What we know:
Blueprint: E1 3-13, E2 16-26, H1 32-42, E3 62-65, E4 68-71, E5 86-89, E6 96-98, E7 101-102, H2 105-112, H3 132-142, H4 149-153, H5 155-158, H6 170-181, H7 190-196, H8 208-212, H9 219-235, H10 238-255, H11 260-264, H12 280-285
Parallel strand pairs: 1-5
Antiparallel strand pairs: 1-2, 3-4, 3-5, 6-7
Helix pairs in contact: 3-6, 6-9, 7-9
Amino acid sequence: MATTRHFKIWRGDEAGGALQDYQVEVHSGEVVLDVIHRIQATQAPDLACRWNCKAGKCGSCSMEINGMPRLACMTRMSTFGPDEVITLTPLRTFPILRDLVTDVSFNYEKAREIPAFTPPAHLAPGEYRMQQVDVERSQEFRKCIECFLCQNTCHVIRDHEENMKAFAGPRYFIRAAELDMHPLDTRSDRREHAQEVLGLGYCNITKCCTEVCPEHIRITDNGIIPMKERVVDRRYDPLVWLGNKIFRRDQDEASGGEASAAAESLPRVTSQPPPEERSPKADAQHAVNWNRAVPPPAGPALTEAGTIGVTEFTFGRPAAPSPFGEDVTFPLPPPQLNFSHPNQPR
């Protein structure tokens, strides 16, 4: 059964354009791309629209349908109301070439910035072995058809074009995550590369990229967030930083200090000033003793029931000595600081 539907299609080029109205016959079971082909055949032979497979696997027919980034070949006409106007516009994040066709070369430029898969040097092709769990972990990201709908909907570059130079986008974050999770990839700098070159820190995980993915890849939950966690572990965890610092120091001593410059470039995560900013004279002047012995903290006494008494929260026992000297004054004398429970005998 055929019905007549109202379409609004953006027509124009980089110089400008506008929406044009089309009344077109639509048959049962058709998708939006079928209707575009009918419009090209009957009303607008010069209408530009990119497409290839018509099976949802090439990602070519990406556009915005009623403001939602979608694939024209996978959007059925039955999803719209009988009187609903269907508006077709090009992807708004990328430069317009003509009508519904945009210039997505930005994505291919960002793809070239990602280092390729680097297998172990001692393994020849055909000798690679992986566990099934490792295959399944990265297989989800391999389903990407590069429709660039996630790139288009990401507000970091959609609303701020100036970020495009420093931000690769969600499609390439999951590519970096896929390679970083690969058990046979030997590159150790993918996390730093994702942070410094691809702009992983710009992403604030709003999950809009996951919502528009036609392959239902959980881009944010399974790719971007784990990658952010890896970056945080490496760059901001003080224990990991300390381990790296000790390792580099041992490496410097073994190699004659070749890596000392790289180690010194790391940020300091210590509560005391660096040695070059301290002197015995200044320490004596301010009554500071950085080498003062600090006793280990003692746990509070437990009641017969194995709980901590309420009075323990007053911290009446002496604290560890401060490197700046003993505290001599308080807003209130310590005997007056009593936070015992009202029903507890004093």
